[in-house]
C-alpha cells in the first residue's frame, strides 16, 4: 500500500496510474478481441446483437459504479488519515452493500431483460441473440462485482499494481475461453453469442477466487474471515450519500446511451454493427483518462484526508497534461487510420463505411471526455458529487435532443447522432471546467478521522 499524499506529484501520478492504464487497456483490448471473434466467426448481425446489450448492461450496473467510487474515496480518506478502525468498517459495509445490489441487478436482467430490449427498438432478427447474451452475462455478474470491489479498495489504499495483474488474468482467461465457447470444441457445444458472455463469467469467477485466496493470505484487511461483520448505519448512509449522486449521474448518462441505441437501431444492422465497433474503440480510447481519473481521485482523497489541500491543483494540472498528450495521439490514429481499425472487425463494406464516418467524428469527443474525466475526478475525490450530477443532466439532455433532432429532422441521418454526441461533450467539459475554477469543492472533507500511526504497517503492505 502507498501513501499518495507525500512525494513528487507527477512521478506519483504516473507510477500509480500506469498500472491502471495497463490493466484497463487489457480490458479494452479484450472488448475489441471479443468483437473480432463475434464479428468474424458469427457475422456482423451477431456483433450488432451483442452491441445492443452493452448500453443496457451499463445502465443496470450504474448504481454500483457510484457505490464503488464512494468506497474508493472513503477508503482513500480513511487510509490517508491513518484510521484503521474506520477503514475496516468501510470495507465490511461497502462489500455487503455491493453484493446485495448486484443480486438485485442480476434478477432484474433475468426477469425483464427481453422487455428492455424491445423498448429500445431491437430488431426482431436480433432480439433472441441480444437477450441470450444479456442473460448469460448476468449469471456471473456477482463475481465481476466482487472482483471490481477488491480492485477499487486496493486502489483506494494506494496499490494499483495488484489490480493490473488481476485485470490481466481476467483478460487472458477471457481470450483463452472465448473461441472454444463460441465455436465449440470436443465436448463443448458451439454456444454462439452465449459463449462470448460465458467466457466473461468464467474468467471473472476464476480471477475472483484466485485473487481472494492470494490477497487474504497476505493482507488481513482483505480477509473476510477476520472481519467484524457489524452493520454500521452511519457508514452505509455515508456510502449511499456519496455514491447515490454519482450513480444517478451514471444512470442518466447510461439512459442517454439507451436512447441513442434506440435511435441507432432505426438505421439498420450495418449502422448498429458500426456503432458497436465505435463503442469498443471509445472504451479503448478514453480508458487511459478514466484510469488517470481514478489515480486523481485517490491522490486528492488521501491529500485531503492528510490535510494537504494545496496538492490538489498540482495533481489536476499534471493529470490534465498527461491526458491531453494521450488523447491527441488517439485523435490522430482515428482520423488517419479509421479503415484499418474497421477491417479488423469485419469485411462487410457497408459496416466499414459507417464505422469510418463514426470514428472520424467521435475521436474529437474522446478528447473532450478525457479532460472532463480529470476535472470530475478531482472534485469527486474531494467529495463533491451533486454538481457533477447536475452537469450530467444538462449534458445528456443536450446529447439526446441534438442527436434526435439532427438524425430525424435533417438529411444527416445517423451522422446527426454522432454530431449531437460530439457537441454535448463540449457542453459537459465547459460546465465542469467552470465549476472547477470557481466551485467550493476545495473545502469538502467527508470523514472525521482518528489517526492510528500503525496503519502504514498493516501486515501485507507490499501485496505483490
The oligomeric state is single chain
How would the global form be characterised?
Answer: globular
The mean pLDDT is 80
Strand coverage percent: under 5%
Radius of gyration: 22 Å
The H/E string reads HHHHHHHHHHHHHH
Tell me the structural class: mainly alpha
State the helical fraction.
over 70%
Major β-sheet profile: none
Number of domains: 1
C-alpha end-to-end distance:
10 Å
Explain the overall architecture.
By secondary structure, the chain is mostly helical. The chain has one domain (9-444). The chain has helices at 9-42, 44-81, 84-119, 124-138, 141-156, 161-183, 193-218, 233-265, 269-305, 311-336, 338-342, 349-381, 386-408, 415-438. α6 runs antiparallel to α7 (193-218) and α9 (269-305) packs antiparallel against α10 (311-336).
Topology (SSEs and partners):
Blueprint: H1 9-42, H2 44-81, H3 84-119, H4 124-138, H5 141-156, H6 161-183, H7 193-218, H8 233-265, H9 269-305, H10 311-336, H11 338-342, H12 349-381, H13 386-408, H14 415-438
Helix pairs in contact: 1-2, 1-6, 1-9, 2-3, 2-4, 2-5, 2-8, 2-9, 3-4, 3-5, 3-8, 4-7, 5-7, 6-7, 8-13, 9-10, 9-12, 10-12, 12-14, 13-14
